[in-house]
Amino acid sequence: MVEKSKTIDDKYSILLPTYNEVENLPIIVWLIVKYLEESDVPFEIIIIDDGSPDGTQDIAKKLQKLYGDDKILLKPREKKLGLGTAYIHGIKHATGNFIIIMDADLSHHPQAIPEMIKEQKKCDFDIVSGTRYSGGGGVYGWDFKRKLISRGANFLTQILLRPGVSDLTGSFRLYKKDVLQKLIDACVSKGYVFQMEMIVRARQFNYTIGEVPISFVDRVYGESKLGGSEIIQFAKGLLYLFATA
Ligand SMILES: Nc1nc2c(ncn2[C@@H]2O[C@H](COP(=O)(O)OP(=O)(O)O)[C@@H](O)[C@H]2O)c(=O)[nH]1
Ligand SMILES: [Mg+2]
């Protein structure tokens, strides 16, 4: 539970990028609303849908009617333009002073959000990262290959860049808005490696980072967009960071 606090001005903008998440969107939105209302924190959900052919936007419109257009903001784009730019697009419309980024496919459970908020307040952290690789965190439903890729990517990055954060490739995080904006401006990579570059750059800028253990559950509905080309891109991005950071 997040304490009813003195910082009444804090507001949390949750960015939900979606591509073909028609089954997942109503559930994730319901869960976010439930946990944040229980915690009594001001928030808004910004849905960035990239022209999903499965009707995700129709569902998003219904959810907006249901919860109100102050709680659900729809900022769609014409076609699939990638996750990195979806965040940049979403941030432009955020009215909160904190941004939470998470996947819409139910891999990230909204119950961790109040914990991230609490952790942030503890030391006024610039960033709080959900971690699958320390404390009670974990990964469920991935096959061996996917686990190996994720672990391997984290391991390699730890060795090469020593960022001091246990989960580098995860994408369930809370940022101060101005911090996220600066990091996005500084980051050069696109795709899977983007999350890792954000943390590496955060270290360069001496931002403070807290961690909250999360359980990551593989998506039940729909398909992952991680493919072989993403893995190659990740390796290239890592080497680039190693050479320049
Ligand atoms: N707006 C937008 N969202 C995307 C795009 N690609 C993936 N997503 C969303 O980003 C989140 C993570 O994608 P996902 O395929 O689950 O990646 P994985 O968890 O690494 O397999 C999900 O909510 C997707 O719907 C994109 O090009 N545009
Ligand atoms: Mg996923």
Automatic annotation (TrEMBL):
InterPro entries: DPM1-like (IPR039528), Glyco_trans_2-like (IPR001173), Nucleotide-diphossugar_trans (IPR029044). It is an enzyme of class 2 (transferase). It is found in: Endoplasmic reticulum. Pathway: Protein modification; protein glycosylation. GO terms for biological process: dolichol-linked oligosaccharide biosynthetic process; GPI anchor biosynthetic process; protein O-linked glycosylation via mannose. Keywords: Endoplasmic reticulum, Glycosyltransferase, Magnesium, Manganese, Metal-binding, Transferase. Its cofactor is Ca(2+); Mn(2+); Mg(2+). It catalyses: a di-trans,poly-cis-dolichyl phosphate + GDP-alpha-D-mannose = a di-trans,poly-cis-dolichyl beta-D-mannosyl phosphate + GDP. GO terms for cellular component: endoplasmic reticulum membrane. The keyword Transferase applies. Residues 13-183 form the Glycosyltransferase 2-like domain. Transmembrane segments: none annotated. Its EC number is 2.4.1.83. Transfers mannose from GDP-mannose to dolichol monophosphate to form dolichol phosphate mannose (Dol-P-Man) which is the mannosyl donor in pathways leading to N-glycosylation, glycosyl phosphatidylinositol membrane anchoring, and O-mannosylation of proteins. Component of the dolichol-phosphate mannose (DPM) synthase complex. Belongs to the glycosyltransferase 2 family. This is Dolichol-phosphate mannosyltransferase subunit 1. It comes from Aphidius gifuensis. The lineage of its organism: Eukaryota, Metazoa, Ecdysozoa, Arthropoda, Hexapoda.
